[in-house]
Please model this.
Amino acid sequence: MLEIKFGFASASRWLPKSFFLALAETALKHLQVKGKVILDVHVVDVVAMTEVNQTYRHKAGATDVISFALEEGLNLLPDQFGGRHLGEIYLCYPYIAAQARARSQTIRSEVAFIFVHGLLHLTGYDHQTDAEEQQMNTLNQRIIDQFYEKTH
Model:
């Protein structure tokens, strides 16, 4: 079972909660994460993302996604508080929309890729090396493909 707590700004009408829920369920099933999982998702504007990026990563400007893991990797803590809280994902909708246009992608497909990217970070994946980046991108694309096969 999956519970997503949403903190949406104005972009919520373009990004239905059901989309994130189905995408997260597909990813967690693919990653073989079992039991109740809690996840916080915040869709924010450029100002809010810039503040989060500066405050917590000490980097200037906005970015597409920032994830804050509450547990390390897939070694999830026992269900102590009604579920395993993976952490928080912050998505900057205007940044992602601009990225989609620059890459000739639909906003929906770009949001899907970036959201799964953030979720992979919460489950212990990273891209500090070229090999890790390749592994993470391959897994990300497999999850996206599986999601679209299931929903179409």
Observations:
- The first helix runs from residue 17 to 30.
- The mean pLDDT is 87.
- The chain has one domain: 2-145.
- The two ends are 22 Å apart (CA to CA).
